[in-house]
Design goal:
four-stranded antiparallel β-sheet, 10 strands, 434 Repressor (Amino-terminal Domain)
């Protein structure tokens, strides 16, 4: 990209947001990463591009890898998804999927039972009952969750959901970073 033009693909104003969130001035960021104030200023205003080495130094000042900073600059501020739905063992789920988590709005009639859910891998799972009650068995432990109650657990464990009455609940599957 030529100097003076802005990129529609990368938005390095994220550097300004990171700097301001860290409570740093341009001069302080310059000092911590060894990149001149004018270079950082132009980068923040999308008036120039930076070499990979420059991005790596700026990213390191925020405790990030260069690839993380580049991903932030490349990503839109919001990601929009459309839900899909499916039914299994008497449970109906509306599902949205993002790279690092999946969210489910579940509904089940009394008596519906779902064992060994296969919709996720090695995640952390949160279950939040909105209406009704669920019995959740995780290994040898059994919990009863009523409206307004939630639980989080390591989803790699065998677990079973049973609706004790008509129930509406939210499941959140969060990817575990650096698990293995």
């Amino acid at each position: 990209m030529a100097k003076g033009s802005s990129s529609t693909h990368y938005d390095f104003s994220v550097v300004r947001r990171l700097r301001q969130r860290a409570g740093q001035t341009l001069a302080q960021l310059s000092e911590s990463c060894g990149i001149s104030v004018p270079v950082i200023s132009k980068l923040e205003r999308n008036q120039s591009t930076a070499e990979l080495e420059t991005l790596a130094k700026v990213a390191a000042a925020f405790g990030l890898a260069a690839s993380d900073l580049l991903a932030l600059a490349e990503s839109p501020l919001a990601h929009r998804q459309k839900a899909d739905g499916y039914e299994t063992s008497g449970f109906f789920f509306h599902r949205i999927r993002y790279a690092n988590h999946h969210c489910f709005l579940g509904e089940a009639e009394a008596g519906a039972k779902l064992s060994r859910p296969d919709v996720h891998g090695d995640d952390l799972e949160t279950c939040w009952v909105i209406h009704g009650s669920l019995r959740l068995t995780i290994g040898e432990q059994t919990l009863t969750l009523s409206s307004g109650e939630s639980v989080q657990f390591d989803a790699i464990q065998d677990h079973t959901y049973e609706a004790l009455d008509a129930t509406v609940f939210i499941l959140l599957h969060l990817k575990k970073p650096n698990r293995f």
